[in-house]
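Recap from last week: sequence in, structure out.
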Amino acid sequence: MARDMLPEYSGGSKNLAYFLNQAENYLTLLKKGEENCLFNRPLLEQVKSKLIGEARDVLINYRCSRWGEIKDVLTNRFGDPRSEELLLHDLTTCYQRHNESYEQYHENIKQKLQREVIPKPQQLHFRPTPPWRMNNQDFQSRQNDERNIPRPTNQFPRGPIHLKTQPSQRHYPTNSQVFGKKPTPMSVSTRAISNRNNVNPNHFTPQSRPTFTSKELYNLEEEEREDYQLERLSSDEDENFHEQASEDKEY
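Predicted structure tokens:
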């Protein structure tokens, strides 16, 4: 009677889920870990006998001897279409682009409908990526490539550390001992006046006295002075003569 409850399966994704469910209910009597025992072999052969057509050819090519292998092969070859939730998510996020025609948009939706979900047994074979961890202490201490990992020791004091301040034994002289006392304005006996704002004198300013001109004028010799006076008188006479001649011409 239990054998008659198993349906026949010839391939395709339409009846795969129903066949796998009925086969698992039938194989509840299997003893786990003892696939090759005399009690489990007839049960597996009865399940294999229900595979016909393309499903039978696939089973012969893969040479499966356990129920787990048979289930994985059938799921990978005739995988069930995606669930309604995944299909709804793909269709709601599928939009027509600006440069996309209606035919291209239709082909895109058609590909999403025909795409199959990766079965869970196949996902178990994929190795998950290890989490990336940052090693902050990547320094090597000695030649044996031992990493500089801090190790707690008992030598570190656990109680409070008492630090005693000791007075300095060296003697540093003060400024008064080195340079003496600072003089006051009343204690200075010199008459020299120190001009702090000592500006370099500029002889070319109008406020300064033209010393070079006075030396040339007042330090002349007597003969040169007489010659200068005679030249001055002759120049005055010439000017007067020219003025009188010009007046006579006018009259």
